[in-house]
Amino acid sequence: MGRQYPVYKGLQRPLVFRGFKGKFIYYGVGCLLAGLVTGALVMALVNMYAGVVVLAAIIAGGLIAIAQRQKKGLSDKSRTSAVQVHRVNLTKRGKHVT
Question: What mean pLDDT is reported for the chain?
Fold first, then answer.
């Protein structure tokens, strides 16, 4: 029987597999498949060594990019570091005080 990898899924928690959470697992699988297909095409059309380089570059680059993107969280919310000031409009006897 092959190796078994633990997959953790707790209550109200995202699926975790080898450090990747939720939707990033699917992004990782897509990156692996894209690297394999592109590497195989380059191996068939150009050169075996060039294909191996392309395959390794796509897989490694994609997984690193996904890991960096995962640090921002599962949802794609914009997080600015700017200070946002909201004006408060108070009404006093029908007139706005600013």
Answer: 78
